[in-house]
Amino acid sequence: MKYFTSAILLLITASIAVTVDAIVTGTYFDRIVFVIFENTAYGTAAALPYMQDLTTRSNGLLLSNYFAIGHPSQPNYIATIYGSTAGITDDNSHNVAGNNLVDLLEAKNVSWKAYMENYPGNCFTGTFAPSGTDLYARKHDPFISMNDIRQNSARCAKIVPLTQLDTDITNNAVPQYVYVVPNQNDDGHDTNATYAIQTWFKNWLEPKLLQPAFTTNTLIFYTWDEDDNTGNNHVFAGLLGTPVVPPSNHNDSTAYNHYSFLKTVEQNWNTGNLNRNDVGATAFTQYLHHP
Ligand SMILES: *[C@@H]1O[C@H](CO)[C@@H](O)[C@H](O)[C@H]1NC(C)=O
Ligand SMILES: *[C@@H]1O[C@H](CO)[C@@H](O)[C@H](O)[C@H]1NC(C)=O
Ligand SMILES: *[C@@H]1O[C@H](CO)[C@@H](O)[C@H](O)[C@H]1NC(C)=O
């Protein structure tokens, strides 16, 4: 009888395991949602009412001294998961060898997906999509440039269109590492920061903030890839979510950059590092506390 009960329990456990990935508890948060916008000076973003609203909420924090890595766009995106620009100084298609954040996450069983708005799926490697538009742009999708993702069908299948996120929320199957790239209208690239933030981001984010499948123990981090093409490259960045316990002025003026994002993820799940610029980066963890 005892043996029989254990066998049934094993069966139940096994069937749960195939449908829902186990959560790997993090030091500060159990999920991170990253959203990245395009080409805007710090001051322009700071003047937007929705940015002021988000950073001053009870679980909101401004990272007022955050810097992008380079120009044009692509090296910044590569930096966020590779720990260096891989020597890339343009927006052309590149194939990048060597390990990246996905190797570190998978070694710890931390689930991930890259949600690219208007991505056609099926491991599409072209420059733009859908045909006749430039809505999805490969230069903003660092995952497809990584050889060990592009050449691995199971990994490549985790680069998905952004609409998949609503499905994943409905199914309570949002991965623990969520990288969101809006299309070139919604990220401000072909429009402007006002449209990207006041219209697209607000309408996209607010309903999700009511969904526990999205928000539970989730750190939301949003920033810009680069500024308006100056040498300074100061960009706006903010944190939101129950893991954030902000100081009374909601302002962390520590110097951070895109490598800080990578380091924060590495520290949260104790993944080790990529032995690149992530090693010396400062994680933005000082106002984080696991809920
Ligand atoms: C990851 O999951 C696999 C399969 O369930 C397991 O064998 C392995 O020990 C896990 N690794 C870690 C670091 O938890
Ligand atoms: C920003 O873009 C929106 C829609 O694309 C447009 O209506 C608005 O006039 C633009 N604002 C500025 C300051 O250019
Ligand atoms: C944040 O702090 C920095 C450094 O003290 C300061 O220069 C900046 O004006 C502050 N920004 C806000 C919005 O409080």
Summarize the structure.
This is 5951_t:CDS:1. One of its GO terms (biological process) is phospholipid catabolic process. The protein is α/β, with parallel strands linked by helices and 291 residues long.
The helix fraction, in percent, is 25-40%
**DSSP strand content:** 15-25%
Number of helices: 12
Largest sheet: 8 strands, mixed
CA gyration radius, whole angstroms: 19 Å
Distance between the termini: 41 Å
Low-pLDDT residue spans: 1-19
CATH architecture: 3-Layer(aba) Sandwich
Number of domains: 1
Q: What is the number of beta strands? A: 13
Give the CATH class: Alpha Beta
Give me the CATH superfamily. Answer: Alkaline Phosphatase, subunit A
Enter the CATH topology name.
Alkaline Phosphatase, subunit A
Helix/strand order, N-terminal first: HEHHEEHHEEEHHHEHEHHEEEEEH
Major sheet: arrangement of strands:
7-4-8-1-9-11-2-12
The ligands bound in this entry are:
2-acetamido-2-deoxy-beta-D-glucopyranose
- Overall mean pLDDT stands at 94
Indicate the overall shape: globular
Secondary-structure-based class equals alpha/beta
GO molecular function: hydrolase activity, acting on ester bonds
Signal peptide: 1-22
Pfam families: Phosphoesterase (PF04185)
Protein name: 5951_t:CDS:1
Describe this structure in words.
The strands form three sheets. This protein has an eight-stranded mixed beta sheet with strand order 7-4-8-1-9-11-2-12, with helices on both faces. The model is unreliable at 1-19 (pLDDT under 50). It is built from twelve helices and 13 strands. The protein has a single domain (25-269), classed as Alkaline Phosphatase, subunit A (3-Layer(aba) Sandwich). The N and C termini lie far apart (41 Å). Helices cover 33% and strands 16% of the residues. Helix 4 runs parallel beside helix 12 (258-268). With 291 residues, the chain is of the alpha/beta class. Strand 5 (128-129) and strand 6 form a beta hairpin. It has helices at 2-19, 42-46, 49-55, 73-82, 101-107, 142-145, 147-150, 153-156, 164-170, 193-208, 212-215, 258-268, and strands at residues 31-37, 60-63, 66-67, 112-116, 128-129, 136-137, 159-161, 177-181, 218-224, 234-235, 237-240, 251-252, 256-257. Bound molecules: 2-acetamido-2-deoxy-beta-D-glucopyranose (3 copies). Keywords: Hydrolase, Signal. Residues 1-22 form the signal peptide.
